[in-house]
Amino acid sequence: MFGIAPIALLCAGALAQDKKPDGPPIKPAEGANFVAVVIGLSSYDALPDAVELDFARSDAAVVTKNLKSKANFTHTFLVTDGEATRENVRELLRTEVAQLLGPNDVFLLYFVGHGVGADLDEPVLLVYDSSLEDAAASGLELG
User: Fold this and answer.
1) Residue 23 included in any domain
2) What was the pLDDT predicted at 2?
3) Phi and psi for 108 in degrees, rounded to 5?
4) Is 78 helix (H, G, I), strand (E, B) or coil?
5) How does pLDDT run across 8-62, given as a tens digit for each residue?
6) Weakest-pLDDT range from 16-20, 100-104, 113-117
7) Tally of domains in the chain
8) Residue 39 β-bridge partners
9) What is d(CA 82, CA 32) in angstroms, rounded to the nearest whole number?
10) Does 90 map to a domain?
């Protein structure tokens, strides 16, 4: 079953930016599916208005458009604001995305929004219905 754990692999570079790659980039297999889930959160249901991100939703839309037109991604999913609940994102990953991905395919998760816990080695991406009081249970855990 496809779970949230693979996200940690994709985000590892963001959390450890001082590491250098150990060789040349891996070339995708011929005929590989390129699948992207792009999440953009300009607003949150349970967080203060002061933490809203003015351009997250529009930035995510631009990234999605460019992945389709310039990077030839075969499947892209744009999830923004109220659509980006914990359950909706997890369900998208478990069902549609899991059915599209094979062992030689490429998966990209692009997240524009807030996160917490990286300094505690417990990183969590905050989704629309996340709360700061219970971020680990209401967000998308990366560990």
Assistant:
1) no
2) 35
3) -125, 130
4) strand
5) 434 444 444 456 667 776 677 788 999 999 999 999 999 998 999 999 999 999 9
6) 16-20
7) 1
8) 79, 111
9) 31
10) yes
* Structural domain boundaries, residue 38: 5-15+31-137
With respect to residue 143, please indicate whether it lies within any of the assigned structural domains: no
Whether 131 and 138 have beta carbons less than 8 Å apart is answered as yes
Pairing relationship of beta strands 124-125 and 140-141 according to DSSP bridges: antiparallel
Predicted confidence at residue 28, as pLDDT, reads 74
Computed over every residue of the chain, the mean pLDDT equals 86
- N-term to C-term CA, the chain: 17
Q: Is residue 39 part of a domain?
A: yes
Q: What is the pLDDT of residue 11?
A: 44
Dihedral (Cα; 91, 105, 109, 64), 10-degree rounding: -100
Distances, alpha carbon 136 to alpha carbons 37, 45, 53, 69, 129, in Å: 21, 16, 21, 35, 12
